[in-house]
């Protein structure tokens, strides 16, 4: 029982450290946040840096792999959602079957015949 308490306290301490780090990061991000719009020239320069002007073979391969990774991620999330919905349907069907079985009278199987000693 003592080990469970220590593990629980360790979990709480780690959760507290995680919460403090998230609060520190959010505080830092909010302190550097500016709601004034930047000049149009800066926005255009940032867009120009985002999109490559010359696409090399390696860049094209990386863009293709990135697109493939995005497709795999989307299909994986979709598959996980479909599986979760199917599991909910199975559990509700099992629950209904158990409720129907609870109303039936119990059946006792007949005892096997005893083996006679020779």
Describe this structure in words.
- There is one protein chain.
- With 118 residues, the protein is mostly helical.
- Among the domains are: 1-30; 61-102.
- 74% of the residues lie in helices and 0% in strands.
- The chain has 3 helices and no strands.
- The chain has helices spanning 2-31, 40-50, 57-102.
- The protein is elongated.
- The model has no long low-confidence stretch (mean pLDDT 84).
Short overview:
By secondary structure, this protein is mainly α. Helices cover 74% and strands 0% of the residues. It is built from three helices and no strands.
- Shape label: elongated
With helices defined by DSSP (H or I, 4 residues minimum), what is the helix count?
3
What is the percent of helical residues? over 70%
Mean pLDDT, nearest integer? 84
The helix-strand sequence is: HHH
Low-confidence stretches: none
Task: Tell me the distance between the termini.
Answer: 56 Å
User: Structural class, judged by helices and strands?
Assistant: mainly alpha
Find the count of extended strands (DSSP E, 2+ residues).
0
Question: Strand percentage, roughly?
Answer: under 5%
Report the sheet with the most strands, covering strand number, pairing sense and barrel closure: none
* Radius of gyration over C-alpha positions, nearest whole angstrom: 31 Å
């Amino acid at each position: 029982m003592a080990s469970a308490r220590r593990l629980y306290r360790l979990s709480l301490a780690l959760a507290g450290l995680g919460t403090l780090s998230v609060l520190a990061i959010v505080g830092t991000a909010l302190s550097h946040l500016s709601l004034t719009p930047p000049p149009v020239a800066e926005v255009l320069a940032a867009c120009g840096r985002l999109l490559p002007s010359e696409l090399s073979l390696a860049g094209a391969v990386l863009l293709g792999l990135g697109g493939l990774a995005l497709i795999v991620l989307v299909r994986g999330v979709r598959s996980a959602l479909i599986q979760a919905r199917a599991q909910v349907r199975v559990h509700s069907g099992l629950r209904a079957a158990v409720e129907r079985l609870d109303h039936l009278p119990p059946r006792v199987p007949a005892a096997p015949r005893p083996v006679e000693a020779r």
